[in-house]
Structures are given as structure tokens and as C-alpha cells.
């Protein structure tokens, strides 16, 4: 069940957008899943580009988190080897 504030109405599915759904903002709020269904065309070009850029940012964040985990494990290994 979504919660938080209602941020608006998704122009694609016409349903409410809740804060915790982490919508994508480009002039207005969109559900991320709805943006995946956008048809190709010049009129949707900018919003599709920002969707893809947003996906890259999310992946980069995940990579950074994984690299942090690797660093922690490497330092644990180092400590164990020095025992
Ligand atoms: Zn939607």
C-alpha cells in the first residue's frame, strides 16, 4: 500500500503518484514503470532520455555500494591475515 504525500497524477496511467513510489520528475511526476511503456517518438524523446539517465544513476549508486562492501571485506581479510 503506497504511503506518504500524493505528488500528482501520472500523465501516462492517470493514477495517483505517491511519495514512496519514488517517481521520476521531468516537468511533472511519472511512475518509473509507466515511463518504460512510453512509445518512441520525438515528443517523448526528452523524458525517455531522462529515464535512461536516471537508470544509470541508480546502477552507479549500486556499484558504489558494492565497491564499499568489497573494501570492507578486503580490510577484514587483511586483519585476519595479520592475526
Ligand atoms: Zn503511471
Describe the structure.
The protein is α+β, with helices and mostly antiparallel strands and about 80 residues long. The protein has helices at about 30-35, 45-80, and strands at about 5-10, 15-20, 25, 30. The protein is elongated and about 60 Å long. Helices cover about 50% and strands about 15% of the residues. It has one domain. Zinc ion binds near residues 10, 12, 13, 31 and 34.
Question: What would you report as the Rg, rounded to the nearest angstrom?
Answer: 19 Å
Per DSSP, the total helix count is: 2
Enumerate the spans where pLDDT stays under 50 for 5 or more consecutive residues: none
> Given the helix and strand composition, which structural class is it?
alpha+beta
The molecules bound to the chains, other than polymers, are: zinc ion
Order of helices and strands: EEEEHH
Mean pLDDT over the residues: 88
Helix content: 40-55%
> What's the total number of strands?
4
The strand line-up of the biggest sheet is 1-2
Main beta-sheet strand count, sense and barrel state: 2 strands, antiparallel
Strand content: 15-25%
End-to-end distance = 50 Å
Shape type: elongated
Number of domains: 1
Features:
83 residues, alpha+beta, two-stranded antiparallel ribbon, 2 helices, 4 strands, elongated, binds zinc ion
Compact description:
With 83 residues, the protein is α+β, with helices and mostly antiparallel strands. Helix content is 51%, strand content 16%.
Task: Map the helices and strands.
Blueprint: E1 6-9, E2 16-18, E3 24-26, E4 28-30, H1 32-36, H2 45-81
Antiparallel strand pairs: 1-2, 3-4
The structure holds zinc ion.
Amino acid at each position: 500500500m503506497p504511503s506518504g504525500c500524493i505528488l500528482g497524477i501520472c500523465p501516462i496511467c492517470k493514477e495517483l503518484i505517491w511519495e514512496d513510489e519514488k517517481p521520476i520528475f521531468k516537468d511533472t511526476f511519472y511512475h518509473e514503470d509507466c515511463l518504460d511503456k512510453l512509445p518512441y517518438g520525438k515528443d517523448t524523446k526528452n523524458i525517455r532520455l531522462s529515464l535512461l539517465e536516471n537508470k544509470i544513476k541508480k546502477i552507479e549508486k549500486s556499484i558504489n555500494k558494492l565497491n564499499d562492501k568489497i573494501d570492507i571485506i578486503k580490510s577484514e581479510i587483511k586483519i585476519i591475515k595479520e592475526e
